[in-house]
Design a protein that fits this description.
Elements lengths: L3 H24 L2 H15 L9 H11 L2 H26 L1 H13 L8 H19 L4 H15 L14 H10 L11 H37 L4
C-alpha cells in the first residue's frame, strides 16, 4: 500500500491537473454559464417584480406574505452564501486571495482606492485574533494591536485612516488601542465594515475569475490541438 506521503503527493498532482486543465473547461461550459446568468439575473431583478418561480410561490403560500417578500428572502440567502464563500476564500485560499487583491487594485469600476487596504486590514485582524486566541503574551498582543492601528488608523501617509470605515468606528479603534489589556475583538466594528465593502466587490471578482478561466481554457485547448 502506498505511504501517506505518496498518496498526498498523488492527490496534490491530481488537484493541480484538475485546477489547470479540467476546471477551466467546466467553468467555460454552457451549463455553468447558464447557471451563473440565472443567479445574476435573480440578484439584479427588482424585488417588486413578481416571478412565476414555483419555489417563490410556495414560500409566499407558506407565510412569507408576497412574491416580492419571498424574492427578497431568496436574495438575502444568496448574499449570505456569498458572504460565507468570501470568508472561506480569504481564510483558506491564499492564491485566490492574492487574485482578489489584484482585482481590487485594478479591476473594480468606480471602486474605493482603499479597497486593497480593506483586504489587508481584514487579514491582519485575523492574525491579531489568532495571536490572542493562542494566548500570546500581553506584550505581543499589544504590539500587534499598536502596529495595526498605526498602519491603518493613524497612518503617516495621507489619508490618516487607510480603510473604508465610518469616522466614529476609526475613533473607537484608536481609543481601544490605549487599553492595557486589549480584547481579541478590538477591531470587530471595523472588521465588519471593511468586510461589507469587500463583499460588494465579490460578484465582480467571480466574473473576473470566470473570464480568466475561459482565457486559460482557450489557451489549454489551443495547446492540445495537433500541430499541422
Amino acid at each position: 500500500m502506498p505511504s501517506a506521503y505518496v498518496l498526498s503527493e498523488a492527490l496534490a498532482a491530481a488537484e493541480q491537473e484538475l485546477a489547470l486543465q479540467w476546471m477551466p473547461l467546466f467553468f467555460d461550459s454552457e451549463a455553468y454559464r447558464e447557471r451563473q446568468e440565472k443567479r445574476r439575473a435573480l440578484l439584479e431583478r427588482p424585488p417588486t417584480v413578481q416571478m412565476g418561480d414555483e419555489r417563490l410561490a410556495t414560500a409566499a403560500r407558506d407565510g412569507v406574505g408576497s412574491f416580492s417578500e419571498a424574492l427578497a428572502t431568496q436574495q438575502q440567502a444568496l448574499r449570505v452564501s456569498d458572504s460565507q464563500r468570501l470568508s472561506q476564500m480569504l481564510r483558506k485560499q491564499p492564491e485566490a486571495t492574492r487574485q482578489f487583491e489584484h482585482y481590487l487594485s485594478t479591476g473594480v469600476p468606480d471602486g474605493s482606492p482603499l479597497l486593497p487596504n480593506d483586504l489587508r486590514f481584514w487579514l491582519e485582524v485575523q492574525r491579531f485574533k489568532g495571536i490572542c486566541h493562542v494566548q500570546g503574551s500581553k506584550a505581543l498582543v499589544k504590539d500587534k494591536l499598536t502596529a495595526v492601528i498605526k498602519c491603518f488608523f493613524n497612518s503617516e501617509i495621507a489619508p490618516k485612516v487607510q480603510v473604508d470605515v465610518p469616522p466614529q468606528v476609526a475613533k473607537s479603534v484608536c481609543e481601544k488601542g490605549r487599553q492595557r489589556n486589549p480584547s481579541p475583538y478590538a477591531f470587530r466594528a471595523a472588521e465588519e465594515a471593511v468586510f461589507q465593502a469587500l463583499l460588494a466587490c465579490y460578484p465582480g471578482f467571480c466574473e473576473y475569475r470566470r473570464k480568466m478561466r475561459r482565457s486559460l481554457a482557450h489557451t489549454v485547448g489551443q495547446r492540445a490541438l495537433p500541430r499541422r
